[in-house]
Design goal:
The protein is an alpha/beta fold. It is 35% helix and 25% strand. The chain has one domain: 3-Layer(aba) Sandwich (Rossmann fold).
């Protein structure tokens, strides 16, 4: 896979630390957090599901194990992460589609997915790209299809632990409040955007959101 000309923030923050990403996320409770996201998404066997910012493919594997008949697609700008996702699928004997690209320029037709999911990714985006990404999610969703997002909530610096304070030191998390994310989803044309739950983790509080593509 060719390198893209655009810059992006790798899943682990740096290219050299990508090998540490999966064990670190697992240690911090990432698998349980993704399982909660998948439960909320209520995927069905006939659904076509897109994971934007799929990284090393952990959520893709989880979806296919639970819903083997669903068509699952993962998109990420990082060829190194996609290579790991491909190997992960091969080891698990699970097939899914992997594409290199950016969430604000989705290479898919209008109304082509029943679900669009995002986990641990949205805070990686620059502010100028957040609404573009949400508009693209709305564009590729079928009428009545749903967008599900899980990301770090805005941290309380007093109560957060050391790991959480380190993760939340990124200025990109400064506006990751529920009010802000719901407002962005509404601005992007998604219907009934709302927070639908939260979960505590060693990395800090995680927040879950849902919105619908109106017909």
């Amino acid at each position: 896979m060719a390198e893209t000309g655009r810059t992006y923030l790798p899943a682990a923050g740096y290219h050299w630390s990508l090998a540490l990403y999966d064990p670190l996320v697992k240690l911090l409770g990432g698998d349980a957090a993704r399982a909660m996201l998948l439960e909320q998404a209520a995927v069905r066997a006939a659904h076509r599901v897109l994971d934007i910012g799929c990284g090393t493919g952990s959520l893709l594997v989880m979806i296919k194990r639970k819903y083997p008949e669903a068509e699952v697609v993962g998109l990420d700008p990082d060829p190194r992460a996609l290579a790991r996702a491909r190997r992960k699928g091969q080891r698990s004997r699970i097939r899914f589609q992997l594409d290199q690209g950016f969430a604000d320029e989705l290479p898919y037709p209008d109304e082509s997915f029943d679900r669009v999911l995002s986990s641990f990714m949205f805070h990686h985006l620059e502010n100028s790209l957040k609404v573009k990404t949400l508009r693209e999610a709305r564009r590729v969703l079928k009428p009545g299809g749903r967008f599900h997002l899980m990301d770090f909530a805005k941290a309380d610096s007093v109560s957060a632990g050391r790991i959480a304070r380190w993760i939340h030191s990124s200025p990109r998390l400064n506006d990751n409040s529920e009010a802000r994310l719901v407002s962005l989803m509404r601005e992007a044309g998604l219907s009934d955007p709302k927070g639908i739950g939260s979960r505590s983790s060693h990395a800090g509080e995680l927040a879950y959101y849902q919105a619908t593509a109106s017909g």
